[in-house]
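Hi there,

I know you've been waiting on this one. I reran it after we fixed the sequence typo, so this is the corrected version. Both the input and the resulting structure follow.
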Amino acid sequence: MATQTNEVVLQSTITCPECGHSVEETMPTDACQWFYECTSCKAVLKPKLGDCCVYCSYGTVPCPPIQEGNSCCS
């Protein structure tokens, strides 16, 4: 019987809603990232209402705790 492994993805491409600039970042595993400064336009991104961090709002991959099925920042 094969064992299923759910590997956490740490790379996420974050896209600025202000200027559309995208960059791949490594997500932290020990904390939520509540703020992110766009490397292009310098806008400071904050999570959307109901999201726990900027990666859940603007990234291609949700943060590690969410991937693991846990509540983020609890």
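Quick highlight: The first strand starts at residue 11 and ends at 15.

Best,
R. S.
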